[in-house]
Amino acid sequence: MKKNILFAMMLAVFGLVLTSCGDKDSEGLSRFTYYPTIELEGDSYLVWEKGVAFEDPGYSSTMNGEDVTSQVTVNGSVDVTKSGIYTLTYNTVKNEDGFGASATRTVVVLDSKSAVEGFYLTQADSYRDRSGTVVAYGDQYEILIIDNGDGTVFVDDLLGGWYSQRAGYGDNYKLYGTLAIAADGTLSCLESYLNGWGDSHDDLTGTFDAATATFKLDAAYAGMHFVQTWIKE
């Protein structure tokens, strides 16, 4: 019985020590903090016509029930005179504990009258050849092509969505690249990069038919061949 009483007393003292330490550690700190929130109006991914003045769809921000939209700062801009991908970042005011919130919007500026730039679909009968083992894409996957205005185009995935969309790995596994289009439609790849694995293409051949807005190419990557057809949407 004495042992039980002694054990209980030790626990009580230990609990008091912990409580005391916890109180000291929390001195001067607020038990509650109100976090700012931000919501974008409209879509977070916009396709904008080249040459048309950009109008932000808007946003709103609150903190502890108060409208603090006027204190939001927007970083980035959209140049509607040049086709490209632009990112806008919206940052809220910070609360008294230094916490803020942010949101991003991607704006793709495209010329709808361009013969080459726009969104394309990798055709389902495209395929990957890996040491003689052929596997079809089996579905259509969307890729983006932007005209650089100098005879070259930016392509957001030279593998036509094989890893990023078909395998579900995401944008980090797109093989971004720049293609040169010769007067006869012949393609050559000037540069490429795949962030996820930190490498680039081995070789690329193909053609572009402006009359049908169709790319046909064989992209060699990591010892494999990705034989694809892209048709403009």
**Could you spell the SSE succession in H and E letters?**
HEEEEEEEEEEEEHEEEEE
Number of strands: 17
What share of the residues lie within helices? 10-25%
Structural class: mainly beta
Note the beta-strand portion: 35-45%
Radius of gyration: 28 Å
Mean pLDDT rating: 90
The shape, in one word, is: elongated
CATH class of the largest domain, named Mainly Beta
Strands ordered across the widest β-sheet: 8-11-12-13-14-15-16-17
What is the straight-line distance between the termini?
85 Å
Biggest beta-sheet profile: 8 strands, antiparallel, barrel
Number of helices: 2
What are the low-pLDDT stretches, counting only 5+ consecutive residues below 50? 1-22
Briefly say what this structure is:
The protein is mainly β. The chain has two domains: 37-110, Immunoglobulin-like (Sandwich); 118-232, Lipocalin (Beta Barrel), CATH 2.40.128. It contains two helices and 17 strands.
Ordered list of secondary-structure elements with their pairings:
Layout: H1 2-25, E1 37-40, E2 45-49, E3 59-63, E4 66-67, E5 73-75, E6 84-91, E7 102-110, E8 118-122, E9 127-130, E10 133-136, E11 141-147, E12 152-155, H2 162-166, E13 176-181, E14 186-193, E15 203-209, E16 214-221, E17 224-232
Parallel strand pairs: 2-7
Antiparallel strand pairs: 1-3, 3-4, 5-6, 6-7, 8-11, 8-17, 9-10, 9-17, 11-12, 12-13, 13-14, 14-15, 15-16, 16-17
Would you give an account of this structure?
The protein has 233 residues and is mainly beta. The chain folds into two domains: 37-110, Immunoglobulin-like, CATH 2.60.40; 118-232, Lipocalin, CATH 2.40.128. It is 12% helix and 42% strand. The chain has two helices and 17 strands. The strands form three sheets. The protein has an eight-stranded antiparallel beta barrel. Strand 15 and strand 16 form a beta hairpin. The longest helix has 24 residues, at 2-25. The chain is elongated, with a radius of gyration of 28 Å. Mean pLDDT is 90; it is low at 1-22.
